[in-house]
Amino acid sequence: MKDGMKQRDYYFDNVKFILILLVVVSHAIRPMLNESDLLKTLYLTMFSFHMPLFILIAGYFAKNFRKPEQNKKILVTIFIPYVIFQTLYLVFDYVLYRPSEWNGSIFDPYWIMWFLLSLFLWRLILPYFIQLKHPLILSVILAILIGYVSDADDFLSLSRTVAFFPFFLAGFYLKRHHFEKLFSPWKRVTAVLGLIGITAFLYYLEFHSPLGLSIRKWLYFVFPYEEVGHGEWYAGVHRLFFYGLAVLSSIFVLTLIPQRKSIISRWGARSLYVYVWHGFFIEIYKALDLKDILPSPYQHVVIMAGAVLLTCFLASNFVQKITRPLVQPRLEWLFQKNNR
């Protein structure tokens, strides 16, 4: 390797592939959750960490915000792809479902597009927020308080932007050596047992707990407490609890992911392609009720296998080549050259 070239860290590519795979699988099985307690429990387990951890990794790679032209970079790599795919999804939704009214807005993200808009906002406010005293603690306080705001809606993805910001900020402050502490055989055994324990605990909370918590809604970190059925003054404690659960399950998952380069490393490097494209396939699958044409005993397995294959396809070099102008547009022509 040439001097001065930074070696790619394949561990994080592996992490991103595993996470985007679970995102696609969870979206694929969502229409079937009421058909199986086991399936719903697996879904809850995946949701306990996949987006918090995805956002934490995004924060980890936001450390270069002080480099020149970073605002231009986040505009080109995050906001413009958001505008492109937000528009595509709105048109697609209108063609697919034919709503009686057009309610599309560039500032009201369509389903999965919230992540790109929130990521753009996180990157914008990061340089200013970290100048405050105790920014991580402050972000958690704000994330808890936003749950009390009953009219915090999807405009600018406000609720999710605030609620998930602590994970982004935590990732920003993490260093590579923090991840190194996770890797040892006995810690991997602990992680396996820990994930099994969390899965069992979520099963209990969902199906047998007298607390009456709607676990899925709590794990989305988007609904106001009142909408989840807990408008009490202490409802923020519930969100704090699920933050802790997300941190714990994320640590267990990070411990289990391999560090070496493999085929999933290449796919993980293209996780953005999977994220922005998979929604079209999921919406078609839901609109046509394709799950109903499958034989019942194998339905869940076939759908999950299909989600895995879809993820691998969307992460392929083929998809990257033909869709790069939309996902990673080259827009140097938009900006004036610096002639200094």
UniProtKB/TrEMBL annotation:
Q: Indicate what this protein is called per its UniProt record.
A: Acyltransferase 3 domain-containing protein
Q: What is its main location?
A: membrane
Q: Which organism is it from?
A: Paludifilum halophilum
Q: Which UniProt keywords apply?
A: Membrane, Transmembrane, Transmembrane helix
Chain ranges of the Acyltransferase domain: 10-314
Superkingdom of the organism of origin: Bacteria
Q: Which InterPro entries match?
A: Acyl_transf_3_dom, Nod_factor_acetyltransferase
**Annotated transmembrane regions:** 12-29, 41-62, 74-97, 109-125, 132-149, 155-174, 186-205, 240-257, 269-288, 300-319
